[in-house]
């Protein structure tokens, strides 16, 4: 009888643990909030929220090598992206997203278009990754998230890097009302 109860418990617990591992809930936040990202797997949708706590004029717009030749295009990109809201929310159907690891998520497909200050904004992908760097000082793990946006039919990337411990599984609601009150650009 005891073995049957253990077997029955395993039959129910194994599928639950498998489902939990496939759930795409993640929050990334710096200690003093600057750019926060939340991913929530809910009702057949994956909801991705980006918060620019200090306004869009302080958000990262590049994490790649930059040469003097790139400066004019970066200035143009900065001008466009400082005109978007400080809070962005996009939804993908669950089938458009894949989870590789708890903190490695990918969603692909154009989201519903939103209008803000006469700008048409949609997202066409979201990704997160874990990066490991080995140096003479040791091994360092970081997380990268990127939201690929289309603003008025031009493509832009909002990248953000987080140190180990600044990204974790589970959805933790960031109070968007307080963000809106502090935001310089408002929100949807």
Q: What percent of residues are in strands?
A: 35-45%
Average pLDDT confidence is 84
Name the poorly predicted regions: 1-21, 177-188
User: How many extended strands?
Assistant: 11
Output the helix-strand order: HEEEHEEEEEEEEH
Please give the largest β-sheet.
6 strands, antiparallel
Distance between the termini: 58 Å
- What is the helix tally? 3
| Shape label | globular
Q: Fraction of residues in helices?
A: 10-25%
The radius of gyration computed from the alpha-carbon positions, rounded to a whole number of angstroms, is 19 Å
Helix and strand composition category: alpha+beta
Brief characterization of the structure:
This protein is α+β, with helices and mostly antiparallel strands. It contains 3 helices and 11 strands; from the N terminus they run αβββαββββββββα.
Mind explaining what this structure looks like?
With 188 residues, the chain is of the alpha+beta class. The protein has helices spanning 2-22, 71-81, 176-182; strands spanning 26-28, 35-42, 45-52, 87-93, 97-101, 104-108, 114-116, 119-135, 138-151, 154-163, 167-169. It has 3 helices and 11 strands. The strands form 2 sheets. Strands 5, 6, 7, 8, 9 and 10 form a 6-stranded antiparallel β-sheet that branches. The protein has a 5-stranded antiparallel β-sheet with strand order 4-3-2-1-11, covered by helices on one side. A hairpin with a 6-residue loop joins strand 1 (26-28) and strand 2. The longest helix is centred in the first third of the chain and has 21 residues, at 2-22. Mean pLDDT is 84; it is low at 1-21 and 177-188.
